[in-house]
Amino acid sequence: MNYWIVKSDPETYGWTELIKDNKTEWTGIRNYAARIHLKAMKKNDLVLFYHSNVGKSIVGITKVTKEFFTDRTAADDSWVAVELEVVEEFKHPVTLEAMKLKKELSEIGLIKIGRLSVMPLSKKEYDTIIKMQ
Q1: Which CATH architecture describes the domain 3-132?
Q2: pLDDT, tens digit, for every residue of 2-25?
């Protein structure tokens, strides 16, 4: 199993909308590195849902329910999407500020490459974030 973080602006599509929908196609990613990560996602991988811009915190857990497929929102078929489903909401959101204070999270993409919208985590990093909620 692999572990990931996806970022979304809650004013565009946030955790509240995902809870209502229960599942969503994770479309609209137009970054080459993020596309590589989307293609690496496997069914049942766990994915942390991060609110960017407003809130700046991880608010819940999703899982991959459909591996990569052509993103229907793209002008060409080189871009991909995955399907994500809600697993659980965090008891307490884990803020970016709190994650920056944890030495064991200093290498995660969220801290090192802030613009990347899809990024991998190690099992240890994932477990550290889970314990912080």
Answers
A1: Roll (3.10)
A2: 999 999 999 999 999 999 999 999
